[in-house]
Amino acid sequence: MTDSNNKIRAVVLAALMVTSVFAGTIAFAGTAAAENTNAGTSAPVTVYLGDSVDISGVPGVESTMIGVAGDADGSTAEAQTSGLTDIDSSNGWETGAYSNQSDGDVIISVREPTISDLTLETDNGADVTDGTVTNDADNLTVSAEWNFARYENLTITIEDEEGLEVQSQLGNVVELENTGDSTTLTGLDDLDTGEYTVTVEGEEDLDGTTRSATFTIRDETNTISLSETTVTKGDSAVATVTGEPGEQVHVRIDQDDLEDSYNDPNDVFANTGDVEVGPANFTDNEGQDWVAVVLGLGDDGEAQTRIETGAIDTGTIEIELAQGADINNSAEDSADLTVEERSINITSAPNVVRVGEEFDIEGTAAESDEVAAYARIDETWEVISGDENPVDVDSNGEFLLELEASSPLNLPDSYRVAVVNEEALEGGSFPNTLSNDEFGDLDTETTITIRTVEGDLTAQLSSQSIAANVGDEVTVSGTALGQGDEVRIYKVGPRGDVQFQSTDIDDEAFEEDFDNINNRGTHTFLIVGQGRDGNYAATETEVNNEITGDETPQQAVEILNDLYSGAGVDDQVVELTLSAENPQLSINDFTTDGQVAQGEVTVSGTSNREDGTTVFIEVLGQNENVIASTEAEVNGSTSEWDATIDMSDVETGTYTLRADDDESSSSLEFELVESVSTPTEEPTPTEEPTEEPTDEATPTEEPTDEATPTEEPATDEPTETSTSTPGFGVVVALIALIAAALLAVRRD
């Protein structure tokens, strides 16, 4: 009996052990059902880098696989002929294709695991990926696409702004099984407002493959905001509304805030892309008239519409936002818009200009098409001369008036200058004058004060002297403020010949070159500006009639000065003289008593050649061999040149320095020594200390006709001391004694 019991116990125990093993196997298989590790039994097969897959059943798989394409080409990878193979770099696997021969067919294809898309949608189909939802939305649909769905599912994780996972609050289904599938998370309205991050990732070995997107939960209240809260009448503002993605809202304006002439809703709302209904006129159940537009909120829960203000009264109006398309719905939010009258603002203008000078006035004139500048002369406003007056206002509402201080600003004075817009037009153009009454009737204008002063003309020559008949040129340049567009330049030669040149003024400056300086002597230049009236006192024809060619230089200069001066003439004249001589070149003595020390030596000189003329400098030996050389340029304004020549390696001896400019030359002989000897100065004798003066009076020396004897050297003989009474002398002493005697007698 005992043996039978033992046998029964053994059988039961064995059965329990077998059952436990199978139960464990069944349980393991149940938890791993989501992961497929079998690559299959046909070739080629695709696996993913980083996964562990059983490829032993794929025909042709050997323990060593050879890369034949992609990054794997030419490499080898280790495979398990039974069980799982880790498809990773530790076994040599790379993306690409593998075979069991270097030229064999593809057996294993290895790819990077990727999640190509992650989409978040609300119940109404609005795509809120990286967007917003309102806190009354209950559901959020998550869908994704990935390339390794054969082997692994995707898990879904949702974190709040603090990094805490909240997916457990949104239902039980938090994974995706097939690419393109979706799952709906519920209970979204139980979450706090804020930003949440949704992450999907591989469930097992490929959990390093992830993709994330965000959604933001905000308050359910619809809102409206304006790009501009204050605009000029005729300008526009953009209204931006927010709400539940995919829903409709409408924006409306009370028709009582519109001009009496209002008729067309398109004059208030622009039919932009987010508009789904309208713009149109509506009347609510209480008889109130509105102009409104219905907007569709996009996936981001936003929509925009442009509000035109041309038909809106000036002042502050309320723009309302309501849910849906029903005009009777109550407003959920509103924004105030202030519409101001059109205005002209000057942003840049000079306070002072010279008569005849060009100047600019810049500014803004929102919603104006054209502006013009006028100056007040007595009781009339006259249009100001200028290249750009009137001028169009650009698309940014900005303008630039290019004016000239000539008519009517050609007299030095203070002027009231106004800028007006197209309200002043008469027959399609701005009139030349406006009366005070006409100017006062304008709604849009602005004024400033500009003071005009006398113009200024300056001129100078690039050199005061020049070499004649060698092709050198001299430059006349200067500034011409308030002198119009050009200056006239006359050159009177030493034989009375007159050369004329008209030179343009550019940025209030002018410059002209003269190169026909052939005659020696004094050449006189007269530079003439137009003055404040913008005209020359004499025409070119009148000048030609006066200058016959037979005049002396002095006569020609006097005639020209007379033509541009006199009563009622405001032309400005500047007179300059130029000395033309034979070419001259000199060398300044650079030696010390004829000697120069070895090293770098600075040499200089003078020349009357034009500015920039090259001076060739050479050091010549006894046979006129060139020992050293350099070049210098003439400074025309100073008629000087200088250069440094290196004689560090030149042997000591006697040399000649020669300077040559191709027209003239000069030379200087010198001795090159190791160091220049400087005479030693005799030491200055030390002066004896001066004797202190005594209190005794010094006797006055009697004048003598004899020559002053030479002072003898000091001796040891004692010096005689004067016995004169100190103070005021003998006379004062006697007076003091008499006064004392009288005092004594009085006391007795």
UniProtKB/TrEMBL annotation:
Record localization: Cell membrane; Secreted, Cell wall, S-layer
Region of interest (Disordered), ranges: 658-726
InterPro entries the UniProt entry points to: PGF_CTERM, Surf_glycop_sig_pep
Annotated GO CC locations: plasma membrane; S-layer
Domain PGF-CTERM archaeal protein-sorting signal: 725-747
Pfam families to which the protein is assigned, alphabetical: PGF-CTERM
Residue ranges of the TM segments: 727-745
Protein name per the record: PGF-CTERM archaeal protein-sorting signal domain-containing protein
